[in-house]
Design brief:
The chain is α+β, with helices and mostly antiparallel strands. The protein contains eight helices and eight strands. An eight-stranded mixed β-sheet has the order 1-2-3-4-5-6-8-7, with helices on both faces. Helix 1 crosses helix 2 and helix 1 crosses helix 3.
Length: 266
């Protein structure tokens, strides 16, 4: 694929993310965020679009190399695999340490996202206790104050194939603290999955939810999953907007006005 073809794909991606986008008015050597109303989630969607359309994987350390249209095209042109050259990853069973990532948030905080471990029961219990009652309700769709031992075991003792869970942690005074978690469970016949996510109240609006979902979607793709879905309380407008930004579409069930079913292709 030559640079001209890549440029057309990048323009299509930008148009899908920013409906007001006018290719003729864009100065290709100037930062896009100075020309378009792009937030951090939109930028993650550009990265996801490059992965989906051009099979280009971009580490977070390279995000700064994608400021302008020319920069994105040059970056993708240098990394686009030849047709048929992409190999599917074989994920060994066991703890997938390769999924561990370190992210720097907009406020400069460093967060580690890693697969959960069985010994994280205490970490998960503390995280759930620290959530507000409203956040716990939005996560479990029922009023809970304390997770029973069986539920904690289910959430932390996962097989990383049919059930994947990623936790976001920070270190405070030498202690690891969980500030977010996202997981998916596969559904028969094994090509789709259902996600759930929870973020500490103090971290909501920080961009952490977008980072967690981007890593979860990447893990699902690597395992050959093709569809992801979720169920969101109809009153949770913030989460519904977030799902739309991630590319999910809402499927309303007239028999269930309490929740909204959201789906997307991976």
């Amino acid at each position: 694929m030559d640079a001209g073809q890549i440029r057309r794909v990048v323009l299509d991606i930008l148009k899908s993310i920013a409906p007001e986008f006018d290719a003729s008015s864009i100065k290709p050597d100037r930062p896009l965020r100075q020309q378009l109303d792009l937030d951090s989630m939109d930028c993650l969607n550009v990265v996801a679009g490059l992965h989906d359309r051009l099979h280009v994987d971009i580490p977070e350390s390279d995000y700064g190399n994608l400021a302008s249209l020319d920069a994105i095209v040059a970056y993708a042109a240098a990394r686009t695999p030849e047709a048929g050259g992409a190999a599917s990853a074989c994920i060994a069973h066991g703890y997938p340490a390769e999924l561990m990532r370190r992210h720097r948030m907009l406020d400069g905080s460093e967060v580690t996202v890693r697969p959960i471990r069985p010994e994280d029961e205490g970490l998960e219990a503390d995280f759930m206790r620290h959530l507000s009652s409203e956040s716990r309700y939005k996560r479990f769709m029922t009023a809970v104050s304390e997770l029973p031992e069986g539920k904690l075991k289910y959430l932390t003792d996962v097989d990383y194939v049919n059930h994947m869970a990623l936790v976001a942690t920070v270190v405070r005074e030498g202690k690891e603290i969980e500030v977010g978690v996202a997981d998916y469970v596969t559904e028969p016949p094994g090509t789709g999955c259902e996600f759930a996510i929870a973020v500490d109240d103090a971290w909501q609006g920080s961009g952490l939810a977008g980072v967690l979902m981007a890593d979860l979607i990447s893990a699902a793709r690597a395992r050959g999953l093709t569809d992801m879905e979720g169920f969101i309380l109809a009153t949770n407008q913030r989460m519904l907007k977030f799902a739309r930004q991630l590319g999910f579409r809402a499927v309303h069930d007239p028999d269930d006005r309490r929740t909204v079913h959201v789906v997307r292709k991976l």
